[in-house]
Design a protein that fits this description.
Layout lengths: L7 H10 L24 H5 L20 H19 L4 H17 L4 H20 L3 H25 L6
Length: about 160
Amino acid sequence: MSRCLSPLPLLLALALGACGPGEPPSPEPALPPPPPPAAGDLEDEIFPHVSAQMPAEGLEPDGRMAPWSLGVQVGATLQALAEACGQHDAAELEQMRDRQRTAVVADGVDAERFDAVWTWAYRQARQKITMQPPEELERGCQSMHKLQQDAERMDAMMQPMALP
């Protein structure tokens, strides 16, 4: 059986890096919990304030981040970025998430844990993406598109070289 490494983590790092240098995180003042979304305010309903802290479902009993949760975060972040950039249609994105969920659950992770981490990471990524100035997001999307093309070319080149 041959195994090739996926270029997705590299693609994510490069695409997010293309969105701008970013500012070092500054301590946020303690805010009261946000009020419930107003009826019909879909944006607030979809992207409520998201805690920067990993949900408990993504942690091991000793408090360390579960090894599988990093891949789930990458997948959710890539989906949010792909949506913002119009890279895939909704059905393709749903299939990607379902394939990742199936693989993680097959490795013994409870589906509810996957869902909690994926939803948290997706909302966190969407929140950051929606705060990007449009011109920065456009540059990031162009870089992501180019990186995706490069990754596809690399994958095609690597297929004949797959390890036994």
